[in-house]
Amino acid sequence: MLNLEELKHFIAFAEYGTLSKAAEQLHISQPTLTRSMQNIEMAFDVPIFERSKNRIWLNDTGKLALEQARRLLDTADDSIKIVRAYHKSLKTIRIESCAPAPLWTLIPVLSDKNPSMSITSELVDMEKIIKDTICGDTELGIITKEIKEEGIRINKYCEEHLSICLPPDHPIVQTGKKEVTFEDINGYNCLLRSEIGFWAELCYEKMPASRFLIQKDNFSFEELVRSTTLPYFTTNLVRYAQEPMKAAVALPIIDTEANVTYYLIAKQTSHYF
Amino acid sequence: MLNLEELKHFIAFAEYGTLSKAAEQLHISQPTLTRSMQNIEMAFDVPIFERSKNRIWLNDTGKLALEQARRLLDTADDSIKIVRAYHKSLKTIRIESCAPAPLWTLIPVLSDKNPSMSITSELVDMEKIIKDTICGDTELGIITKEIKEEGIRINKYCEEHLSICLPPDHPIVQTGKKEVTFEDINGYNCLLRSEIGFWAELCYEKMPASRFLIQKDNFSFEELVRSTTLPYFTTNLVRYAQEPMKAAVALPIIDTEANVTYYLIAKQTSHYF
DNA sequence: TATTATTACGTTAGGCGTAAAGATT
DNA sequence: AATCTTTACGCCTAACGTAATAATA
Predict the structure, then answer these.
(1) 8 Å CB contact of B71 and A90
(2) I need a surface site. Which of A7, B94, B129, B173 has the fewest CB within 10 A?
(3) Distance between CA atoms of B95 and B263, rounded to whole angstroms?
(4) DSSP code of A74?
């Protein structure tokens, strides 16, 4: 019967050309390799080596055996990887959300309740979230509308309300308004964080006359927020690492699209909520 | 590192449900199986079993591991079969002939000259023989025409001359003819051996008015030859196990198609002739 | 002479089976 | 009580490394 360890020796021999070099590389003795080669030849039960008194090399059959050895070790590696990946997937709670804010509270709660599980999250559009939740490609979904679907449970999770932050001397603030619409602020260029899910699409759609300065990392964003007078967005769920420009005035945006309710969805059989 | 022997144990356990039963089937002790399962679990490095104090069973990951174990053992088996088959093919002289007679002398000579080789032969139509010889699917070919082909050597091997055997009181014999044409004998039903290569096609073509009583095995054929008065064919190369009906008269068939020369063909690099 | 494969040989680690323990049905 | 898994333990095989051998380039 073939032995995977010996097959590794076999491959090493084929790579390094002599038993001596292979033995050195494998940190084992030469006689051990001699025996491995003999055992492999016995397992295949056909001659795979040519030998002279102090030289050994592969014959044509041996070259084929080498291919097979490589294939076999590869599939062995694959097998282990597949099993480990599956195990990991069983130990992972996947979350797909249409916006980041709900994750800020959800992930800590989940990891607290399920200390043995690891958690992965991804920002995804709502159609895909629903589809993936139904087909089991994600354990949890977070969306902004109520749905009714066979085998899917749904729960209200939280609300998020968008505001725009403006410097005190901004024309809109000067008017004394306490709340605004997208229409009011359309045309003003704004700072915008990336990785904000559906909010980005919404801004593009509702403020076609504005340009947005996208900041990829949080740090740059917060730095800019403190050092410029550009408008930027915040919500009731946002907590900044450091307080933003104190003087800024946050005006709620009253469009319905700027005030969303998040819903958790999962398979009926799920026990994560 | 996975061990194929232990994977067999693993599969046996999965098949028989308990370590005890598997141990019994494998003719090893139960503790050995316990250890095998532990080693496999260590090799995969993820939990694949559920255990109670006196019960052990596969979890979901284990079921996947089982699939992988089966796959791995299958490919190991395959590998060995592939290597052995290749070795065997290196030790085999393949012959494709358009007729059986040349093989009767060729095979003994070849196996005498190449005692370590085994020989396989097959009756095949000439087009395929030529094609297979060129592409290396056969080591030797036997055909009835001279060909010129790059990289192919060709040698005259022997001749075969067809005769028809008739009972003494047969009308054709009564005419005193010493030789015949296919036309002369067309219409008479004849005994015909199967496995005679191109001869069969020739008979059908040249004697469309005759019907042929095909005999699959040699013994039946020779029995019939001795006990009936039906015409049958013979050639200069045919040697019957027992003498046929003594009184039968063999009349040579003079058509050119009934008198063939066999040629051996092989790759130029071949050393079999 | 240096390199290399193989054989010989002594030691040791590890694998197997028996026996025992612990637990379940 | 019977069945089953796991642990403990002792034996013994077999695998490994060292050293020696033999041959080649």
Answers:
(1) no
(2) B173
(3) 13
(4) H
pLDDT in tens, B27-86: 998 999 999 999 999 999 999 999 988 899 999 999 999 999 999 999 999 999 999 999
CA distance A69 to chain B (A): 8
List protein-proximal bases of chain C (any atom < 7 A from a CB). Answer: 3-9, 15-19, 22-25
Phi, psi of B138 (to 5 degrees): -140, 145
Q: Do B90 and A4 touch (CB under 8 A)?
A: no
Count of A-B CB contacts under 8 Å: 86
* Interface residue B86 vs chain A (CB under 8 A): yes
Say if residue B76 is in the same domain as residue B132: no
Q: Looking at the structure, tell me whether residues B168 and B249 fall in a common domain.
A: yes
Contact (CB<8Å) A83/B46: yes
Tally of domains in chain A = 3
- Pick from B40, B60, B89: which residue ends a domain? B89
Q: What's A187's domain CATH number? A: 3.40.190.10
Average of per-residue pLDDT across A152-174? 94
Dist CA A210 CA A199 (whole Å): 15
CB atoms within 10 A of CB A131: 14
Check if the beta carbon of residue A102 is closer than 8 Å to that of residue A235: no
Cβ atoms within 10 Å, residue B121:
19
Residue A164 sits in the same domain as residue A143 = no
Q: What is the pLDDT averaged over residues A133-155?
A: 95
Which of B89, B110, B131 terminates a domain? The answer is B89
A148 and A64 both lie in a single domain: no
The Cα–Cα gap between A266 and A270 comes to: 6
Q: Which of residues 48-67 of B touch strand D (CB under 7 A)?
A: 49, 51, 53-56
Name the one residue in this structure whose structure tokens are 């174990």.
B69
φ and ψ at residue B228, rounded to 5 degrees:
-125, 175
Nearest CA to CA, how far is B105 from chain A (Å)?
A: 31
Count of Cβ atoms closer than 10 Å to residue B124 Cβ = 21
pLDDT in tens, A213-242: 998 887 888 888 878 888 999 999 998 765
- Structural domain that includes position B96: 91-157+261-267
